[in-house]
Every structure is written in structure tokens, then in C-alpha cells.
Amino acid sequence: MANKKLRATILGLRQDGCSYGEIAKKLEISKSHVAYYAKDTKLTPLQILAKLRAAASKGGRAEWKPDCISNMFKLFGARVDALSSTSKGRAAEAAVRFRLSMLNLEVLGGTGGESIDFLVMCPHGQRIIRLQVRWAYKGPSGAPRVRLRCSAGRGKEKRFEPDSFDILTGYDLITDSVYVWSAKELLEHKTTITVCAFAHEAWSKLLNLLE
To answer: pLDDT at position 183, please?
Structure first.
């Protein structure tokens, strides 16, 4: 009975837009305990956007730091394979954020525990697009590929859920190119997708969703 009451409380707080960390702090339990009961729940984009804006107004918004880009320039002459996954991820996020800014789009970072990296919207717009950022790696054929898998905990991986994002981008560090796919285009791909011409800098796919 106590477990049912705890689960109901956790789900109620989750529906109110609380993150795992906030719920754990309020109820004085571990985040893993919260995740166990709320694993099938997700914050809506509007809830995430509200949380990000609230954090930004308090000066607590977490974003990539400017020195991440300068750090990549210092390592630009190095072999891409020598870079850590974290550095590749930062480079990809910086490259995608730059392009979104040039399109005059409002960009906010994702929150911990959510399978999105950016929330994107037009200035004064109402539609919010969930965007996932990945970096491309060299496939067996030599062509860059983008993984469609994420962490499932305990060293395991799983494919992204079909409804976990609207747009996926893959950044190729060698050519400084971003490849863009809609979630619908990826439904038939299980673990990876190879970059192709129709996805190269295809930002119209994102802009069409914002209309």
C-alpha cells in the first residue's frame, strides 16, 4: 500500500513537470527509486521549455561553454579518432547550435534524463521541435554513419524511441557538415544510418515542422 501511495505521488509530481532530481529531493529518496516508478513517463516539450526558461531567469541554465569550441579548434589538427566521445559530442552540439542561430531560431538545451539535446522554436512562435544531436563515425565502407542508439543503463544500449524526438542531426567533424533527418525518415533504420546527399544540411525539414 505504501508503494502504491509513493508511486501515485511520484507520478503526480512528474505530471506537474518535476524532474527526477526534483522529485527525489522533495520526497527524500534516490533518483533511481524515482526512475523505477516513473520510467514510462516523460515531460512534455512545453514543460521542459518552462523549466529551462525558469532556470535561465535564475542564472542556472546549463549550456555548453564557449571554451568547448576554442578547445576543438586547438585539437583541429589532430586525428578525429583521437578525440574523446565527449569532445566529439561538444563539437557536434556547437556546430548544430551555430546553424540554428544563423536560421534565427530560438535554441534551448535539453534536460538531464530526457532524450533530446535542444528544443527549437521560432522567435515568438508556438511550435516546439525536439532535436537530437549525434556525431558521425567512420563506417566499415568509409562513409560516415550516425548511431540511432542511446544508453539503457548498466552499460547497455537501446534504440531511440520513435517518438522521442522530431529531428535528428549527425555532425561529421572531418567535413564540418551536418546531416538532418526527420523522425519519420528513421523508422525503418534500426541501429545506424549512413549519411547521404538528401540529408546534407537539409534544414528545410526542421523549418517545415515549425510552420
So the answer is: 92
Count the domains in the chain. 2
Q: What is the three-state SS of 170-190?
A: EEECCCCEEEEEECHHHCCCC
Alpha helices of the chain — where are they, by DSSP H? 2-15, 20-27, 31-38, 45-57, 66-74, 85-102, 204-210
Q: Based on the domain organization, do 190 and 117 belong to the same domain?
A: yes
Backbone phi and psi for residue 51, each to the nearest 5 degrees, phi listed first: -65, -40
For residue 133, the enclosing domain spans 59-210
**Is 51 contained in some domain?**
no
Q: Which of 11-20, 77-86, 125-134 has the highest mean pLDDT?
A: 125-134
What average pLDDT does this structure show over 41-52? 61
The reply to whether 32 and 70 lie within a common domain is no
HSE value, Cβ hemisphere, 13 Å, CA-based, for 3: 3
